[in-house]
Structures are given as structure tokens and as C-alpha cells.
Amino acid sequence: MKRRVKYIIDLKFVDQLSQVEREQLSEVTEKFAFRTNDYYNSLINWDDPNDPIRRIVIPTREELEVWGKLDASNESKYTKVHGLEHKYPDTALLLVTDVCGIYCRFCFRKRLFMNDNDEVARDVSEGLEYIRNHPEVNNVLLTGGDPLILATKKLEKILTALADIPHVRIVRIGSKMTAVNPFRISEDKELLDLFEWFNTKTGKKLYLMNHFNHPRELTKEAKEAVDLVHRTGTTQTNQTPILKGINDDPDVIKDLIEELSFMGVPPYYLFQCRPTAGNKAYSTKIEETIDIVERARARVSGLAARVRYVMSHETGKIEILGKTESLIFFRYHRAADPQNSGKFMVFRRNPEAHWFDDYRDLVDEYKVETEEEYV
Fold it and tell me: What pTM does this model have?
């Protein structure tokens, strides 16, 4: 019998919360949408108010603190047609849905789940035509929202259309479904057949970009779903932001990236939490997070340690390389402006920095007074 996961969009149906808690959190859910399901709720230790899985999905009044912007990376700047972003020459993003299996409280696209938002295209034909007309695009990322929330038939139409575009070589699906509802994958043979078809019959390659934030999400059900995806020939990776009270601990990150490497899911990116409205409670200080990342990487094999610590900034993907007593080092991993490609940057440290924009004192490497500052 198939496991049917029950989705929950109102706190009054979260039986583990008291009536007082529901009333206190109602103001939060009026501002930022709420969605969970009974499977994901079962991973929560409800006796622990600071449980990391709880912090991922259950609202907190800390979200009401005024901080950040809804579009923290200015994605609207790179929107070319309805539902499509094109920031880097070879990669286009198709926003195919404005629904997820759960709504992570730290989501950087929470604006998509607001009633007055119209960024997502229900009909992706305009985005597909844009891709057809831009032969430099060889990678397409399906995102949103979570593409695996779509019916398999709808996803099949999108993948079939992309398979017919000669210059598209890779399609990536960004999804947290393996973590929040693995039965969506393990109980849907048509979805698995679709993945296998894409990998074996089209001459293209499918990637599933997983979104495991904490080791407790790596349940036997999640591992089964991951294994079934592997069998379709789909390559899998994982990415997660570093999140205060969830995984901002070298032991937690070490366990997460190590176990993922054992599962054949190479850790891809560790992101600095974007300064999105409502996210102050989840954001960590960059210079403290460097230590967390490096202490975790020092204790795992090279397969797990190849994960990169980055920021998805308006100007590009900026890798956070390290620090000395007085300086911090960045490099453009991907740059929207070709003139910034590979650019290495040195700033005076700012212990209170949460984002690249918090660094103002750029150091000219040719004018540093003493070489000791780089040692």
C-alpha cells in the first residue's frame, strides 16, 4: 500500500502545538506562509523547543524582526521572461511552481508564496522559447518552489521539451522532496521511469540537487528514495545553507556531509544564509561560520570536504575562502559580470558581518603595508 503523506497548511492542525502557541504564531503565518506534512513532523522531537527539525518548519516569532529584503539577491534583475532567470551565460532557471513539500522558515524565495506574487509561470512555454533562442544555455535548473511537487505528467512535458532543445545538455532539479516526502519518489514508478528515460534515451544528463539541512533528515525512507534515484542514472548532489540553531555546529555539518558522501550524494554548496526578510533568526556571522565549515571539513574525506562555502550574491556566487587575524578572503566562483570572473578580493575583517555587503574596507593587495598581514 502506498504511503500517503498528509499536508498541513494551518497551525490549528498541528496537534503537537498548544492553543497558546498557535495563537502566538498566527501573526507570523499571516505574514509568511506555512506548510508542513505529517511525515516531516514525525522527525521532530516535540519535547525540545529548540529541536533543529522544528526550527526548519515550525514558525517562530523571531521571524517578525525587521531585517533584510524579500528579494535579497535581486533575482528580479535577471528575470528575462515570465518565470525565467538568466544570470550566468550557460545556465537558465525556470521557476515552475510556487509550492513546496514544506515551507522552510529560512527560505530565500518566500516571496513566491505570498498572495500578490506572480513570478512563477504556470505555462513555461515562454521560458522554453527563450532557452531555444539562446544557444549559450547548456544547463537548465528547474526550481521554484519544488519541481517534484508537480504531477509527474507535468514534469514529463517540461523535461521532454528541454530534451528536444539541442544545446541543452544538463537539466537540474532543485528539490527538498527526498528530505520532506521521500514517498513522492519511492512510490512513483512513473517518476523514476521518467528520470531513467531522460538519462538513457535523450543524450542529456539529469541532476537532482537535494536539500538536506540536518543529519536527522537522512532517514531510511530518505536513503531509499536517494538509492532509487541513483538507479535511474541521475547524478545527485546536496546543498544547504548554514543555519543558526539548526546546523551551525561543526559536528552537525561533519555528520551531514560525511553521511551524504557515504550515500553517494556529494555535498555541493554550504551557503551563507541570505539576508531575506524574516531570516535574522537563522543567519550566522560569516567569520564564525568559516570556523564551523573548516572544522567540519578537516574531519572528513576529500569526497565530503570538496563542498564549497559560498554566498549567492546579487553580483554572483562568491566563495568565502578564509581569514587571517585582520583580513578575510573572497573569490567570485561565478560572476554575473564577466569582468569579475575569478576575481580575488581581500577585505578588512568585520566580525559582525552577515553578508558580503557588510564588508566595506577593500584592501588593495599591491598596497598592503606588510606581507605578514597575509600570513
Answer: 0.95
